[in-house]
Specification:
Elements (H helix, E strand, L loop, with lengths): L1 H18 L2 H11 L16 H43 L9 H18 L1
Helix pairs in contact: 2-3
């Protein structure tokens, strides 16, 4: 039970550190310094509010950068896969190229014209 309590406290500390204001983190750290509660906190290693705020700012900038880099990487990966598949289909002269943009446009036009006729 003590191990699960430590994990829960660590997860809450990370949540407060990443998604909350520095002032709330500082108050949480001061609250956790209370020895009689029996809880330990990762945040109590900061001696001043300025240290906590600087470290929190650097961590948030790092996490935003990692998130943006991962989004860009996924988009580039998907684009490369789509164009690679399209190139391979055209190279082997396959009739089942579902990434052929001309066929996609034509099927959309046919679908729209069929809907207009049905009206």
């Amino acid at each position: 039970m003590n191990f699960l309590k430590k994990i829960w406290t660590a997860m809450r500390d990370v949540y407060f550190f990443v998604f909350r204001y520095s002032s709330e983190c500082q108050l949480r750290a001061q609250e956790k310094k209370n020895v009689f509660k029996g809880e330990e906190s990762y945040l109590k290693r900061f001696n001043s509010y300025a240290d906590l705020k600087k470290y929190q700012k650097r961590t948030k900038i790092f996490l935003v950068g990692i998130f943006a880099l991962s989004i860009v990487s996924v988009i580039i990966f998907l684009a490369v896969i789509i164009f690679l598949v399209q190139y391979l289909y055209s190279m082997f002269d396959s009739q089942n190229n579902f990434f052929d943009w001309g066929k996609m446009k034509e099927s959309i036009r046919m679908k729209n014209s069929a809907q207009e006729i049905g009206k």
